Amino acid sequence: MRRKLFAANWKMNLGPAQARELIRAVRAQLDPQSGSLLKDREVMIAPPAILIPAVQQELAGASIALGAQNMYFEEQGAFTGEISAAMLKAYGVTHVILGHSERRHIFGEDDVLINKKVKAALRHELTPVLCVGETLAQRDGGETTRILTTQLLAGLGELDAAQVSKVVIAYEPVWAIGTGKNATPDQAQREHGALRGTLVERAGRDVAHSVRILYGGSVTAENVDSLMSKPDIDGALVGGASLKADSFVRIVRALTV
Ligand code: 13P
To answer: Which of 11, 140, 186, 246 is 20 to 30 A (C-alpha) from 49?
Structure first.
């Protein structure tokens, strides 16, 4: 059984006071239930890097993992503006989102760079959340499968099967991100099934069936249950709806209420 993972990607939102308030509000609802609810699921929150110390403090004693939205692959040195895996680890970070479509499309990150980051994360025992997703033009051009396969295989690069088993994949169709237009559960299931098929070929059945594949793109309190009812959808990577305690907590409670 794959434990579901519900992950918040706050993107470039909130200040320190708002971040603390949001974590407190989420904890007020989730902490009393953590024994039962979090038995079969995990929760992760990825704030902007500068808010990581404040969020780490607010998460003390909670069953909620701390994530980063990005990092650089080098160990240290003259890389102005960048943050290393070791720096993240020093603040209790356990997960790092890599290859998000905003990193790919706004900041020009390519598969080669993303693979270096995935390898660096694993070297430091951080869980990489490797994002893949097609644009609307690629979908309309019938290229979805080719794009997803390429991004997945290039992102994994030369990793061996044991390393692949430590990666979380997030399918985030670019056309669904921040648009209010989520992939339908059937559409998402089709792509998740295809991604898992590629993982079977790449790393074998056992590993492929243990890897979580999250869906991201306009996930809301209203649509989460139907998405999570699909067999190959193992959780959600949530942007906008993670900025409000009520909607994020409802998403975390998917299929239980
Ligand atoms: P939205 O949930 O705001 O569509 O963002 C999805 C996303 O990009 C999460 O990483």
So the answer is: 246
